[in-house]
Amino acid sequence: MRLRQGYYWHSSHNRSTPFKQKSEEEKSSSDFFCVVRGEVSGMEEAVGRIQAVFQSMLKEHEVSTNAVLDVGITVKNGKKECQFCGNTDPLEFAKGPCLNCEGGECWYCLKCIGMGKVKACSVVIATPEEEHPFPKRTEALVHYKHTLSFKQEQLSLECLKVVKQTGFHEHLLWAVTGSGKTEMIFASIEWMLQQGKRVAIAAPRIDVCVELAPRLKEAFPTVEQNVLHSQSKEGYQRVPLTIATTHQMLRFYRAFDLIVIDETDSFPYRDNELLIRAVHRAVKEDGCLLYLTATPSQTLEKRIKRKELSVSLLPERYHKKPLVVPTMSFIGDLDKRLKKKKVPKPVCQFIEEHVKVGKRFLLFVPRITLLNPIEVALRRQFPNAKFETVSSKETYRQERIAKMRAGELEFLVTTTILERGVTFPGVDVCVINAHEEEFSREVLVQIAGRVGRTAECPTGEVVYFHNGKTKAMIQAVREIEGLNQQALLGREHE
Q1: Which of 480, 364, 461 is nearest to 420 (CA)?
Q2: Does this chain's domain 150-314 share its CATH topology with 327-492?
Q3: Which of 62, 79, 93, 341 is the most exposed place for a label (fewest CB within 10 A)?
Q4: What is the pLDDT of residue 228?
Q5: Do the Cβ atoms of 72 and 31 come closer than 8 Å?
Q6: CATH topology (fold) of 150-314
């Protein structure tokens, strides 16, 4: 198979940098090949995908004539580049044993190793989607559970106008937490699906995917969808609608006409060049990227100012009640109290008051290492309280979240894993050690946004417990107050 000219994205200012023609030095690294990930299981499975395979598999399986072929890791002037993820950091490469190489070892990429090992002796195959992969449809595909407000409808139409444009476009839907961002993009998704085009919703975390999947299935009941994340039991299917973690975008090449990046300011997507590159590679050359966030990063704000990114702004929730403004409460040195197996008095009072009246809440901590000592203290001080802990390391995280949603728990003690994407109607929130660096402005705003999300419970309480106010805490409060003011001014001009 001869190498073909293809395209590989490097930055937001240069999406269409061609794959390099191979030098003799680069070609020498492709004499031997090994499988590192998946397999090319036929044309249908390979379309819109990027994979690394054995050279022998190129003979055994059909490869599209418009596929782009490249060696796994190229070397030019002593500088390595992974052709799967674009990594060029010399510290992110390692040399290990290899049965397929003459020297008994070869280089592999550490940056994308979570998706499988890409080696210098691999073949990377990238196969773009065809123009219209699915039949066009004329019937209505979306079923709204709730009627959109005037402002929601306005922003929905703005997004739809963008996705209908020809050529590549990027657009930001900036709407406060609990404003119904997901519902506002339904019209854009529907239009794309009616045209026979392919759509992906990329979320930062598994929890968000789990939350989104049933909502989208309810909204688009007749549309086939595929849910992809590391814990997903279903395998890859080439369907019109894909819901996936942003890391899964590493597996796609020119596959989607529309990619919606949910919570674009969130870890791990925010300012992550690996994932940003993957998303730009996964969208078609004339496709559209639609970003959703309540707290845009400085990078996005700068791009807006430079007019590199169009934006739609909604500063109020659908029920038109103001965002809950956090209060701050000093608690001193948390560690000293935990050594005595106690939580600080203000935190204890917050819990007592809520448990007494049956008001459920979320208690956020900055680090996983704090979960156990806080749980020990709470079990001692509140032996009859019904609560669990939640973190990214917790095996039964989804089960515990489900128990909280079902009303079987009075509160959850959680890391920032639940800062966004998960809704518990009628909950309050408190943040322990809100001054620590894990709680950035964006995170604190998102946490506050867990409160007052429904029309049935539009108010509540948010408390930042701290050992000294930080810039992030002050900025978070000011941002929430500012958005409330913008919403008020907007209603006055209606």
Answers
A1: 364
A2: yes
A3: 79
A4: 93
A5: no
A6: Rossmann fold (3.40.50)
